[in-house]
Amino acid sequence: MILPNYLWWQQQGYDWIKEIDNRKKFQLIYHLQELVLIDYFQNLRCRQILEFGCGFGRHLKYLREIPDLKVFGYDQSESMLASMANWAEPEWVNEYIKIGNQGDALPYPDNYFDVVFTTSVLIHIAPQDIKAVIKELVRVAKNQVIHLEPAPDYEVVLSAHNGSWNHNLVEIYESIGCQCEILNPAFKIQRLYKVLVNSNQIDSRYTPSNLFLNKLFDLENNIQITLDNLLQERDDLAQRHQILSQERDDLAQRHQILSQERDDLAQRHQILSQERDDLAQRHQILSQERDDLAQQRDSFKITLNEILDSRTWNTIQVIKNNSYLKSLGHTTLNIIQALSINIKSKLKAVESNFINKSDIAIYDEEMELWLQSIKQENQKILAVYVPTWLGINSATQNMFENCYALPEFLSKEQADYYAKIILSNGIKHLIIAGVSPGHLELVNSVKELNPDIRCDITWHGSYLQNCEDYAWSMMNQSVQLGKRGIIYKFGFAKKGMEKTFHSMGLRSEFLPNFVNRIPESANAINSENPQLGIWLSGISYRKLPYAMIASVHLVSNAVLNIAGAGDRAKEWADTLGVEFNYYNPNPIPREELHQRIKNTHLSLYLTSSECAPMLPIESLSLGVPCLIAPVSHWFEDDEYLHSRLVVPYPERPEIIAQYIQQALLEREEIIERYKIYIIRYNHWATQQVKRFIGD
Q1: What pTM does this model have?
Q2: pLDDT of the residue at 349
Q3: Number of other CB atoms surrounding residue 401 within 10 Å
Q4: Rounded mean pLDDT of 125-129?
Q5: Which helix (H) or strand (E) holds 30?
């Protein structure tokens, strides 16, 4: 007897190719699967491979284009394989594709294929059959078996396709004497499982790099959210279109009714007009009759006077005038057509970091007036920064007296304009805080106009960011400008980077970040439960909140306040049952951020890579201790603060939780020690700034 789920695939195969084509338009995972398999089989030394459960051949179609690679397919659904006629030659199908019943032995000799693989197939194998299927896959494989199947923690819909299951592949392989390895995730809902069948075949081993898999995971994580939102917007628009269509039909029906009423009113108007004309004619007749009666009255008066004069009539009865129709009125019908009023609404433009070259007018009145004011004070140094880089924004304004925000991207025309007004207002020393393409364009422009102006760079990144194309490009361009003498000096917030640049013959200084504000005491919070805050400017591989959220779960009665960590952080916290006091998936303005920090007992900022992050010392300057990871120079010169605030294992929630509990108990003492520490530190940091801007 064939199980219902196997029967479903046998009967539904004809339509599955259309279903996959539709899914690929909106689900990124289908494209990422193909990238992983192409990378795997292009780099793995093998001659022939088998896809178990090949369906209509979605993967075979492109994998057979890899030179010197023979691809075979096996499936239990005739309707699925029939769909191959859409792309494959009949001769090729007859040679490389086999079909058989579920549970049959595979029609291939032992060790026949270098690699056997499945993609979203084992999820549809019933639990009582899975072990036998895997044994067959291992039997016909010479070197490896790989699977793209659901992640161990992924909850499948058991009723999907009349039966779906998430098997523990690691445990199943162990039961037959094989070791199954789960590689770094490349997708959210699936994992890449790798099984070495023959450990002696060294030349046939290959594992995709973690960097490649992580980048695919980030790609899906970032883009799939956007695709899901677009799908939701599409559905909302379709629903809105349906509503508007119904409203349109209702309006058409209403228009038809009003048109009929208009026609009825026009007919009524015609009738009334005819009645008006009839009344006018009647009025004319009555007027003539009135005139005739008036003439008769006058004749009667003459006759009456003659009678009176003859004294033949003693009794005169006063003759009263008759009432004549003085006027006739008629109703005028006015049909008023409603005029639609076009309401113009002003939308406040949201400043975007990525400004198109043609979107900014070549006139910045605010900057010109501001430069004129500092010119009057004989100020010669100007630091510019990107307004949306929040940490660099804060660090720059604490270091330098005269700072101005300019867009991240500038055209040559825009850079020339800003260069002219900077030089015309007496600036002799330009500092680029953080490095962006637009600000490097500005450096080139000011140097073209005045080769004697001094241009410096403050670098707020770390070596880990060199894996990012943007940071790598900016660093290379900066180094070249330094070697050509365009950049005079480099300042590094990451301790030790200045030594590397100094060894290349470039002027460089350690330029530590600092905050001038000193707290009076630990902030007082009116809350019985520990209020913990996680404040990020966005999610990246360097700033992930999940271990911190897990540590909050381990602290008794702790309540979480979080911003800038994205929706997945909320999902993770909900999964753990963490209670929220405040949640915002997006970064919040600095003024609001500081106010919310004041409403917490402790901040958490354990990141995997930083230069000298501003958030921890901003939090401490507000009277709120902050736990950090050992990735910067913070507190390395103070044994107490280092032992209380720097968590040695930032990926272990139970260790973070211990530090949280200790910091909550010692909040007042931590802030008091910080007050003493920061006076000395800020004096030293200020001297470093003076040293940097000096010769």
Answers
A1: 0.49
A2: 31
A3: 11
A4: 92
A5: helix 29-43
Alpha-carbon distance of 286 to 289, in angstroms, equals: 5
The pLDDT score that the predictor gives to residue 157 is: 81
Task: Map residue 559 onto helix, strand or coil.
Answer: strand
Residue 316 has a pLDDT of 44
Count, residues in the chain? 695
- 3-class SS of residue 563: strand
Structure tokens at 481: 């400008």
The set of residues, in sequence order, having a beta carbon less than 8 Å from that of 383 and lying 6+ positions away, is: 396, 399, 400, 402, 403, 404, 431, 432, 433, 458
The closest alpha carbon to 216, from 38, 40, 41, 29, belongs to 29
**What does the mean pLDDT of the chain come to?**
85
The answer to whether 195 touches 179, Cβ cutoff 8 Å, is yes
Contact between 523 and 624 under an 8 Å Cβ cutoff? The reply is: yes
Res. 317 pLDDT band, cuts 50 70 90: very low
3-state secondary structure 181-219: EECCCCCCCEEEEEEECCCCCHHHCCCCCHHHHHHHHHH
Q: Label residue 557 by pLDDT band (50, 70, 90).
A: very high
Compute the distance between CA of residue 221 and CA of residue 229 in angstroms, rounded to an integer. Answer: 13
Cα–Cα nearest to 224, from 541, 561, 567, 525: 567
Give the CA angle between residues 320, 321, 324 to the nearest 5°.
145
Alpha carbon 567 to its chain centroid, in Å, reads 10
- 433 has which bridge partners? 458
Q: Which residues fall within 8 angstroms of residue 672, CB to CB, at 6 or more apart?
A: 521, 522
* Helix (H) / strand (E) containing 416: helix 412-424
CA distances from 449 to 222, 289, 432 (A): 42, 104, 17
Look up residue 655 and give its two tokens.
């260790």
Distances (CA, A) of 639 to 102, 605, 635, 636: 66, 20, 7, 7
Q: Assign 3-state DSSP to the chain and report helix, strand, coil percentages, each to 5.
A: 50, 15, 35
Cβ atoms within 10 Å of 285's Cβ, excluding its own: 10
Per-residue pLDDT reduced to its tens digit, 37-64: 999 999 888 889 999 999 999 999 999 9
Structure token digits, residue 181: 């390895």
- CA–chain centroid gap for 180, Å, is 36
Closest alpha carbon to 169 in 201, 213, 138 = 138
Structure token pair of residue 595 = 């106010």
Distance CA 125, CA 494 (A): 53
Tell me which H or E stretch contains 398.
Answer: helix 390-399
- pLDDT tens, position by position, 213-240: 887 877 877 787 777 787 777 877 888 8
First to last CA, the chain: 88
Q: How many Å is the Cα radius of gyration of the chain?
A: 42
pLDDT-based confidence at residue 324 (cuts at 50, 70, 90): very low
Q: Rounded to an integer, what distance in angstroms lies between the CA atom of residue 203 and that of residue 545?
A: 40
Q: What is the largest CA-CA distance in the chain?
A: 161
Handedness of CA 284, 290, 294, 300 (dihedral sign): positive
The closest alpha carbon to 624, from 524, 536, 548, 692, belongs to 524
Which residue has 């590094």 as its token pair?
A: 492
Cα–Cα distance measured from residue 627 to residue 43, given in angstroms and rounded to the nearest whole number: 43
